Amino acid sequence: MKIGALGAAMAMVSACSMSIIPQGTARGQAPPPPAQQESEWVKGETPAATPQLPYKNGAPPRFQPVDPAQLVKIGDDPGRATGAGVALGPDIASLNLADGKAASALQSFRTSCSSLVRREDNSGLTTGSDWQLSCDAAQSWPDQDAARFFASYFETVQVGDGKAFATGYFEPQINVSRVRTGRYQVPIYRRPDNLLDVDLGLFSEELKDKRIRGKVDGTKLVPFEDRAQIDDGALAGQGLELAWAEDYIELFFLQIQGSGRLALPDGSIMRIGYAGQNGQDYTGIGKLMRERGLLADGKTNMQGIVEWLRAHPQEGMKIMRENRSYVFFRELTGPGPLGAMGHPVVARTSVAADRMFVPLGAPVFLDMAHDIADGLWVAQDTGGAIKGANRFDTFWGAGEQAAQIAGGMSSSGQALLFLPKGTVARLVAARRNPGQ
């Protein structure tokens, strides 16, 4: 696979070694505020050729954000939507939903409903039963009339100041073999049976929605092996090899992405998805290399990073090992890749969000500086670097075009959630009558 296509895909994945991480999060640390992260792509480093994405060129926004003074705070925890504050937004009809985007969003919303009506909403905005009416209607609603569906069953809700920041990701492809042979010498591992996810909320209410990963050693829970130990053979001989990659660097970045396509020698494609992570700290090597002055001017993009790694194989391996995080995979035999809800994510429709601010499965409307990201999406995925209110990562599918768009997607704007009608009124009543 061409390096340029792989470059846009990489996620700023992390999960802390024996440290507390959000429940359900595959990948870890929160990014710096948007103003500081323009040079770091959530799914990787800047690609070699960043496309000229369409901008609004001074066109007015589709809607005006709600004055923060009108926000209603239902809780005291700033780490979730109820603490950030919510407000009723504009009528959905005024957003002029594009028919094609609305139809695709309805299809993905319909797919999500089986989970949406029974999942706990970590944001505190809704309960599963709140979605039942719209989910029942979605099953038989015609796709060609999707805009009217959303206007009939939903209201727009602004969380916090509504100021959104969006990046993009896609599904990469690398060359592999199912057996170790010839040039295929880099193992791609399944999740080990002794890797444990510990839900700390079971032990303390203060630790609700937090977990750690590790393994048992006697009577103690200890950190799992890090990248260097695994590379040196800590898991060899256990029958965990799912396939063997041709190139360590490409696999390294596919691990950061969390899913991808594996091209086999016979021309067939094997799809793999995220199955777990070793619980060790993630370190973004692009930032590390820039801080050390290893990348020349004009070489701080993904192509420059890979060129340096290939030109300095010993030093490059040491740098990659400084990213102690290691991701395990499983083979996907159905549609994919799968998002955090367990449903397939859909190109140009699915978006990753922070589940503490967005109910997974909820529609999201974006009005961004990059016109290509405008419109209706459905929150079906999460990511370790996707943290905070109105922080989103848009999914663009597979292939060169998807890689180019994802790599060039770094845009600010405004966001609205589509929640069942009456949600804001119910939340306001709950604040006024906390005992009910």
How does this structure look, described?
The chain is α+β, with helices and mostly antiparallel strands and 436 residues long. It folds into two domains: 30-169 and 345-432, Barwin-like endoglucanases, CATH 2.40.40.10; 171-332, Barwin-like endoglucanases (Ribosomal Protein L25, Chain P, Beta Barrel), CATH 2.40.240.50. Helix content is 23%, strand content 24%. It is built from twelve helices and 18 strands. A six-stranded mixed β-barrel has the order 4-17-14-16-15-18. Strands 6-10-5-11-12-13 form a six-stranded mixed beta sheet. The longest helix has 18 residues, at 99-116. It is globular and about 60 Å long. 49% of the residues are buried. Residues 1-49 have low confidence and may be disordered.
Q: What percent strand?
A: 15-25%
**Oligomer kind:** single chain
CATH architecture of the largest domain: Beta Barrel
Poorly predicted spans: 1-49
Domain count: 2
Quick one: CATH class of the largest domain? Mainly Beta
Describe the global form.
globular
Give the integer mean of the pLDDT values. Answer: 85
SSE order, one letter for each helix or strand: HEHEHHHEEEEEEEHEHEEHHHEEEEEHEH
> Biggest sheet, open or closed, and with what strands and sense?
6 strands, mixed, barrel
The helix-and-strand class reads: alpha+beta
Radius of gyration: 22 Å
